[in-house]
Amino acid sequence: MINTTRRDFIKKSSLAAAGLTVGMGFPTIDVKGSIIGANERIRMGFIGVGNRGSQLLEAFLKVPGVKVTALCDLYKPYLYRNYSQVDPRYFLPKGRPVPQMKEQLSSDVARYEDYRRLLDDKNVDAVCIATPDHWHALQAIDSVNAGKDVYLEKPVSMTIHEGRKIVDAVKRTNRIVSVGYIRRCSALYNKIPEIIKSGKLGEISMISSHYYSNMTPDGIGRMKPEIPPEDFNWDMWLGPRAYREYQYNIAPYMFRWWKDYSSQIANNGSHYIDVVQWLIGENAPSAITAVGSNHIIKDDRDIPENMEITYEFASGKLFNFRVCETTTVPGLKYGNIEIIGTKGSLYISDTGYRLYPARSGQFQSWDKPYEAEEYDSPKEDLAFKHVSNFIDCVKSRQTPVSSIEQSFRSSSFALLANIALEVKQRIIWDSINERVTNCDEANKLLHYEYRKPWSL
Known about the structure:
single chain, alpha/beta, 10-stranded mixed sheet, 16 strands, globular
């Protein structure tokens, strides 16, 4: 077991100065000799087994032919699956999810506090990474360099630069990588492309989507820096990010409301952005405008409680996305996604869709093109379907339904929105060269300087 302290970081800094880089410590593996047979058991290691990591652990355990051989986490009660040892403060404020950890694991499952030791484990074929966003790039790149296939939680990365580095590493190593945009496996969502192709919507002009959550009045609360619990490795948790004192409303779980570690547009919003990007066939926006506000919820967050984003496409389509954490009242006629066309409008949720025909408008005269259509979908276990697709692809070496390239593009929508919000102006995006063409300040936000000794 490795307990990384600040003293350890100083020691590793000297190694980095000597040219031994921590973040890229694995040689490229020739995968030709390591392809897994179609009937062989896939040995899975899990990096991050908190809230989402535990959900994915349960999903993988349902998949035939999967054996869990290793776990890695910086919080010992999560690592050793001991609910009774969880710090009582981690149940506050009310609503913070703490995994039950009731799954049945083999007694020989290896446990690691340092993910690099898990990647050294020859008893691991593939890894599931469900750590905070600021860790995704280092862990994903180190994993493929170590010869592991990867199931990576969304978003792909914390920055555009990191995301492209992951894509490049996957191409170079020929590893199988899937990203947790689970709706790509949905039978319901896979019906939508046929509706669009049928012409019932006519020409698509605008798309709207949203994420709603009422966190008023106190949100994640207001807390002061404190000493972290002895069984939580805070310094390692920060990783490449600048050092700061521990707060109970940052980790675990609540990092999603701190811009150094995540954001709600990237966490929840990018799920729906991925669907929209897929359905309308737009890989990247040409311009992005974002505004946000913080004036109602009384907490420590440094991301907006409410955020409005407009994505412009070269085709002329407009895509509006809203993050609203001050209400749970639906923002659309139905569902989470609205696709507006000249002949009809389509509303989509995770449980069905509604298709409404358009009426002729001012100066126009034409008949209603079809009758309204409603569809309610059977419930789907999307996490299970999605991880099953990953395991199938590990065996077949085919591209997963959520490929790294398209997932990187979906995640980039969210990251660009955060940049536009930060610089407070409409930014023009060159998706070929992956640069902002009208704002130097925005380009500086495409990446950040890692804390030593971490290196991309």
